[in-house]
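anyone seen this seq b4? input:
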Amino acid sequence: MQNVFEDDESGRGWYWSWNGLAGDTLEGMVVFFPSQAAAQADFTFHCAAPFDGTGRRIRPITEIQDLINVEFARLDLCAAAGQPTVVKIVAVGTGTNWDDVWPVGEPIEQGLCRGQIEAAIEQLQKMYSVP
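predicted toks r here
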């Protein structure tokens, strides 16, 4: 079964997708990787991660930071922006136990970049928690 695909329509890169055991659930990575090997490696890490009590997989904070960094580097409009940092927090109403912290100051470029990255971060927060 193939789990890693190239986004040929937009040229955004490689991503992974997985069908659940029941065949009716679809879980897919929201980050686009620069190579097939990088997407496959992340898919392997994802599958090996245990679940927490909220249905999220548990991944080290460094892996979540790496996913955000990959997406950040892919977006040209983020070139001049300061990168967000992942920090552990007390779980909030959404159930997530991590959040992103952005550098102080928000130039126009960072505002545009932040909008793009925040969409990916929101999806990652639904998929992952940190130990």
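The CA atoms of residues 78 and 113 lie 5 Å apart. The chain has three helices and seven strands. kinda curious what u guys think
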